Amino acid sequence: MIPILCIVLLVVLLLLGMPIAFAMGLAGAVGLWTIGGFETMVGILSAAPYRNTASWLLTSIPLFVLMAEVLSASRLSGAMFDAGNKWVGQLPGGLAMATVLASAGFGAVCGSSTAATATMARTAVPEGRRLGYSAGFITGTVAASGTLSILIPPSLILVIYGILTENSIGSLFAAGIVPGIATAMAYMLVIFVVVTRRPHLVSGHQGQRASWSERWGSLRGLWPIALLFAAVIGSLYGGIITVTEVAAVGAAGAILIAGPLLRRLSWADLLEALRRTTHTTALIFAVVIGAHILSYFLTMTMATQTMMAFVAEQQWSAGMVLTVLLIIFLILGCLMDQLAILVLTMPIVYPLVTKLGYDPIWFGIIITKTVEIGLITPPFGMNVFVASSLTDVPFRKVFRGVMPFVVAELLLLAFFAAVPASITWVVR
User: Residue 302: left if φ>0, alpha if ψ -120 to 50, beta else—which one?
Assistant: First the structure.
């Protein structure tokens, strides 16, 4: 009963508005005090913060975040949006499709869903509203497209999963390529279907067909992104440097390209990018520390072993267990931060999944895909609130705008869960 009571305490603290990092840490500390006494609690609290964050791999997180923030500050997303509009702007809902393509391209060098959403909200939404697009529809497209950044490598969520489960981050990045491309294509299909059935969402707007010379010419503005992507991904898959060093190359490359080469990054922009990076990194590390305190408590109570024994006693099939887990993660994604979900649940769920014989790389992509859906579903929907706050579009309208994309996400999740080879063949 003690683990259950501490989980109830955690839920109550979250409902009262306490930040997730402190709620997990406080619930874990109370549990440690109850199980092991005051000295045990103090011993773990004094050692856990340093022990769980002084990691060479974890230094890649602020570097990837810095790369994303620098690219966002340099406004390179405008070139990607323009190129996407040249190629698909003449199609029904072409400007929304261009938003998806630009978000996918930005995600290939970003890794942060929030940064991608904020960047495209400033670029695509004003243009869409100027051309008569429904505010809820174009803003919903931006919010949904931002989720591509946590699946297309380099992805912060995949980095965290790899660190928590001690799996190859390079293999996780490789496994995320096909699902990321498939998701982008599914989003474009959703836009085509929605606009065809409800043309009033775009006020009958039909973009002008660009010539082939204009299309190819628009790609010239993408060479900085292509160069940075090649440096980051090529170095990683070529086995030249480690993941942490790849993150350093990405951050340094983003600063050099946006600053001295393109002169789109002022000192003020760089300082603001560093400030946002510090804020995001502190948030991530606080969540990691709080979740580890809670996991120490759960380990002492043998909650993981008890859960595995319970599942074994039920004689459920592996497919049934996976289905139940995915439903739980979908519910958690609606209520909690994606990083917190991973750090909180992997110590319990990962041993169970691997014992059932599932591929850990495949499971990492499935879980990333599942928590990705939580970024655009109520009541949490971080991407929805970011896009709404930056565009002054009521979040209820944005939630209505993302619902068709949520349906597409659920269908894709079901396919990838049922056909693991669709993900793992790239790694092989």
Answer: left
Distance CA 335, CA 100 (A): 25
Rounded Cα gap, residues 361 and 380, in angstroms: 27
- pLDDT bracket for residue 187 (50, 70, 90): very high
Place of tokens 């209820």: 396
Which residue, among 427, 355, 332, has the nearest Cα to 14 in the 3D structure? 332
Confidence check: pLDDT of 410 > 90: yes
User: Up-side HSE of residue 60: CA atoms within 13 Å toward CB?
Assistant: 26
Q: Which residue has the tokens 């909180």?
A: 344
Long-range contacts of 342-345 (CB under 8 A, 24+ apart): 342/157, 342/160, 342/161, 342/164, 342/367, 342/371, 343/160, 343/164, 343/287, 343/288, 343/291, 343/292, 344/24, 344/291, 344/294, 344/295
Single out the residue of 283, 245, 243, 285 nearest to residue 50, CA to CA: 285
List Cβ<8 Å contacts ≥24 apart for 311-314. 311/352
Asked if 143 and 386 touch (Cβ cutoff 8 Å), the reply is yes
Question: Which stretch of DSSP H or E encloses residue 408?
Answer: helix 395-418
Cα 380 from chain centroid? 14
pLDDT bracket for residue 246 (50, 70, 90): confident
- Across all residues in the chain, what is the average pLDDT? 82
DSSP state of 12: H
